[in-house]
Amino acid sequence: MVIDAYVTSLGASLRGPRAAKRELLTEVRDSLHDAAAHHESAGLPAPAAARLAVDEFGTVRELAADYQRELALLQARRTALLVAGAVAAQQVISEVAWRSAATGWSWQPSWGYMVLARTVDYAGYSVVLLGLLAAVACGAGSRFVSVGGGFARATGMAAIGVCAFFVLGGAALSALSPTWHATTSASLSPPALAAAVITTATPVWMVYSGLRCLRAAAPTRSALGRHPVQEA
Questions:
Q1: Closest-CA residue to 87 (of 170, 189, 176)
Q2: DSSP string across the chain
Q3: How confident is the model over 4-28, as pLDDT tens digits?
Q4: Quick check: 187 pLDDT over 50?
Q5: How many CA atoms are closer than 13 Å to the CA of 180, on its beta-carbon side?
Q6: Which terminus of the chain has fewer CB atoms gathered within 10 Å of its CB, N or C?
């Protein structure tokens, strides 16, 4: 049917979180069926009623950009929350691991090490705050501030940049600390191994989410080429 073809065409033009996209397309399909049923009740044949409902709703090219903006902001919000939560968790894990490993140490960090450590710490606090603010801006805040695909793209790039900064910073701090060449029973304990798995998987997740932001913020396919709706 023409309604199914229209929804399929719209879906092919959009990118974003799968569940949100599926829900959006379901709402579009239900709205079109309701409009077609109204026209049928007014005396139009079913095919003509469906075609009229689609014509009144608007073309895929006209509507895809607005729907894509909604999906891009949702993906950006998820990415911002992920980055804020991951960095906050990493800060806690690092502090606990440091205090556990430093028991009985006589090592005194150098001035350069302390500067790097404080830079990483304060950068972490800033990222958590900015991530939460970005999440608010992409959600309820979008009613008060103008955000769109550009903001989602910036969020994705920031997520990848934040990941690179903390991976490099963490690696440098680890390489400069006495634990780099030390293997103790504490470092092989289940909590330590679990922390290692988390700290390894989290950057991959952040980069993946950032790339999804960039993809969602890209121009819709309908802006690059038409998706004609053929009546079945």
A1: 170
A2: -HHHHHHHHHHHH--S-HHHHHHHHHHHHHHHHHHHHHHHHTT--HHHHHHHHHHHH--HHHHHHHHHHHHHHHHHHHHHHHHHHHHHHHHHHHHHHHHHHTTT------HHHHHHHHHHHHHHHHHHHHHHHHHHHHTGGGGTS---HHHHHHHHHHHHHHHHHHHHHHHHHHHHSGGGS---TGGGSHHHHHHHHHHHHHHHHHHHHHHHHHHHHSPPHHHHS-------
A3: 999 999 999 999 999 999 999 999 9
A4: yes
A5: 9
A6: C
